[in-house]
Design a protein that fits this description.
The chain is α/β, with parallel strands linked by helices. 41% of the residues lie in helices and 25% in strands. The chain has eleven helices and twelve strands. The strands form two sheets. Strands 3, 4, 5, 6, 7, 8, 9, 10, 11 and 12 form a ten-stranded mixed β-sheet that branches.
């Protein structure tokens, strides 16, 4: 099977149709259609259903997406390995991350990596659940994934390197800071306060919902999907926010106070990758990641 055909097939998938894919590939649309038709002939099955001007993946097409990505990723790995022998250090590394790990430790790791490998371009995409990260790495859409979970991540066929455990904190609304002096509060202390909360499914939202279920008289005033909105909302006096400790440095720079929430709940952060056939850039990134594992774990987080 011609890998060019797989490349064109994935372009149609990723750009949601033949016209946009042809523009991205800088080829004529009839040429792209002819190539896809040739791939369908090779496989003996239709890969797309043509509905008007739309192209919708068939069942066979959906099954091909993952293997096709792995083939293209393996080809990139082979090319990068040969280039590495010639001393070439350029290339591209695709990473996917959930929001909180995307602040830290990803920022520190990228800073370290780009200092060591300035010619490698990093492409960072977003995920909101560990399952999205796992699927992206497993199918080859990305080589490196950062995920946070309430429990350690274990995935057959995927290499998991545990990085750190981030305790949940309260980012305090300065216009409603009636908490006692100190560095920690109990969950019951949230009673009578207004909260900015992430959507259901996150550990942070679980803590808020658990407190409410236990009779804590707090109020969710805003529920947001985009966590980049949370700090501005706290700064605007809308409410407090429960977030992982990776957000604390940014909150402090904005002049906000943070408090550890007891009993402590932690977000387990891990970096995921395929177990073999990684590009040199991905292997180098994993070495940088290993340097960011704390030598000693805070007893509070054990």
């Amino acid at each position: 099977m011609d890998t060019r055909k797989l490349k064109y097939f994935l372009a149609v998938v990723d750009h949601d149709g033949f016209n946009r894919a042809a523009e991205h590939l800088l080829i004529a649309q009839p040429s792209l259609s002819q190539t896809i038709a040739g791939l369908e002939k090779d496989l003996g099955v239709p890969l797309f259903h043509r509905i008007g001007r739309r192209a919708v993946l068939s069942e066979a097409g959906r099954e091909l997406v993952g293997p096709a990505r792995l083939v293209m990723r393996d080809l990139d790995a082979a090319q990068s390995a040969v280039q590495a022998l010639r001393g070439v250090r350029s290339g591209r590394l695709d990473i996917i991350t959930m929001p909180s790990p995307g602040i830290e430790p990803l920022t520190s790791m990228i800073a370290g990596f780009t200092r060591m490998h300035p010619s490698v371009r990093l492409n960072v995409s977003a995920a909101f659940t560990p399952e999205e990260v796992i699927e992206s790495v497993r199918t080859g859409s990305t080589e490196i994934g950062l995920a946070g979970s309430s429990t350690p991540i274990r995935v057959p066929g995927v290499q998991v390197l545990e990085l750190e455990r981030q305790p949940l904190i309260l980012i305090v609304n300065p216009q409603a800071d009636t908490f006692n002096p100190g560095t920690a509060i109990e969950r019951e202390d949230l009673g009578g306060h207004r909260l900015v909360a992430s959507q259901r499914g996150s550990l942070m939202r679980w803590l808020v919902d658990d407190a409410l279920a236990r009779g804590v008289n707090a109020e969710i005033v805003v529920e947001v999907a985009h966590r980049t909105s949370i700090l501005p909302l706290v700064l605007a006096g809308v409410g407090h926010a429960v977030m992982p400790s990776s957000w604390a440095p940014t909150a402090h720079k904005a002049g906000l106070r943070t408090l550890l929430i007891e009993p402590v709940s932690t977000l387990d952060v891990a970096i995921l990758s395929r177990k073999e056939d990684l590009t040199p850039a991905a292997r180098a990134f994993l070495k940088v990641a290993e340097l960011h594992i704390p030598a000693e774990t805070d007893p509070l987080l054990r």
